[in-house]
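INTERNAL AUDIT FORM
Audit reference: QA-55
Scope: verify that the stored structure record matches its stored sequence.
Auditor: D.O.
Record contents follow.
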Amino acid sequence: MIASVLPTYSRAPLTFTSGSGSWLTEADGRRFLDLGAGIAVNALGHANPALVEALTTQANALWHVSNLYNIPAQQKLADLLVEHTFADTAFFTNSGTEACELAVKMARKYWYDKGQPDRTEIITFTGSFHGRSSAGIAAAGSEKMTKGFGPLLPGFTHLEFGDHDALHAAVSDKIAAILVEPVQGEGGIRPLPDACLKGLRDLCDAHGILMILDEVQCGMGRTGKLFAHEWAGITPDIMMVAKGIGGGFPLGAVLATENAASGMTAGTHGSTYGGNPLACAVGARVMEIVATDAFLAEVNRKSGLLRQKLEGLIASYPDIFEGVRGAGLMLGLKCKALNSDLVKAGYDAGVLTVPAADNVVRLLPPLNISDDDIAQAATRLDAAAAQLRADLAAA
């Protein structure tokens, strides 16, 4: 008999009932150090007092009116995003998947309005993840994402990650946009080198192609800049944002330049819940905290501290780990043992991590994780690695 909750997840045998900061409490009372942060969502930890206050204040005033009316909290968040980014405008969604849908529509509508309706093709890369919608899985293109869900939405050209020759060969007057994650998350914490991101921007400029960045996972301070593309000194035309922007409340956005968004006029897109007062009240408070030089400097300092401890861990367990990669507090442990086994060993050690492709374990802690908790992370990951080594020796 099928479960009442559709069984599309192989869930861990854990049930969390409360959280505070970087910690979660299981129903049986055990405490776990959360180095996954809900897959980079809880950017300011669990039950952050500032976010709780923002949410409850708004909840006591107004929950929902729909986008038929002006929403002050939405306007505030849009203004903050425009102030702190390349963008001239923002549209709010409930998730990164919905942001992907709009980004694809926006790019194609742009060229339609320019009198080039056949310019619809979007270049994407292997290892990418852009959500689970029809456009998202078609953009990623992997068999894991698409098998059994055809016919797929057409109009995507899939290239090997890092294949520069294939990229230049794929450019034609049919290409509407290039869609890329500055740091692949699901793909195994694979950063796109700054020189490559600059090269993509130059290629787009040379051929009039729109650049779409997916910063759903790597954005909102995760890499030590407000958005990861800032490290390369470039700006996109369209950008997808979600996860950390709501600090745990469902929220996403598409940011765009005035030019790129020019085709999106009244009636071309909509959302019943997107940009609702509750989500935007929380999102505005997240922005006020995260988009400051002092906060981002702390992310970079803590990243250095965590990475130093991870390097020591790798040196102690060369049979378990191959190396560490990533940027800021978006780090990946490349494993020699099965990454899934390390994640499971972490449960016994009281530490939560997130698996990814390429046999990588993701570390995506709250951006405000304390130094003491970083020390605890090293201790508990060491215990997980020791247990895994013992298990492998006994097998």
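Auditor finding: record pair retrieved intact. The radius of gyration is 21 Å.
Action required: none
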